[in-house]
Prior knowledge:
Layout: E1 4-5, H1 7-23, H2 25-35, H3 40-55, H4 63-78, H5 80-95, E2 103-104, H6 105-123, H7 133-145, H8 151-168, H9 192-212
Antiparallel strand pairs: 1-2
Helix pairs in contact: 1-3, 1-9, 2-3, 2-9, 3-4, 4-5, 5-6, 6-7, 7-8, 7-9, 8-9
Amino acid sequence: MGRALTIEQTKQMMEYISRSIIDIEEELNQADRIIGDGDHGAAMARGFESLTRNIKTEQFADIGALFVFCGNTLIASVGGSAGIIFGTLFRSGGKSLSGKKTFGSKELGDFLDQAVKAIMARGGAKPGDKTMLDALYPAAKAAIKAAGSSLPMALREVSDAAMQGLENTRMMVASLGRAKVFGDKSQGQLDPGAMTAYQIVKSMDEFVQGLEQ
């Protein structure tokens, strides 16, 4: 694989991510039934199924255009705040990679850093609010720190950071969104959005480690 993915390999990575999200639809729904409307998994599966269908025949001039396409597809197909937030992840992260022909550890750091900044600006959330940011924020910090290493090494650090961030949501009390109405009852439960964010990063890691083998 070398130190970076090609455009075609990055496209394949997005297809792998999409399948992994679809596979955990019921797990996400179950988590959302406890502190939400119970449809987070269905919404995410709908979006990533659309992405899987539509990305196959697309050709991209650069990595940025690929991720922006993914973000726009999620916004159009998921609907609601989840569609906007997860679409923003890919669209805003992708805009930071305009013109890039490969996706390595430096691009990973830029992508996640810009995604986090855009999500915080759009939704007003911050780390500790029991949202997807609690997995994505530490992932971005780890990615920036690992930007000089190989992509497999960087993604392993990023995935571990996201997993710890997800686990930390268990003891948080939700202060934003639908989960906010549950108050202290939200404590003890993982946040569904953070579960999805972690799955995205974990799938990136799995895909790249698979190429190494």
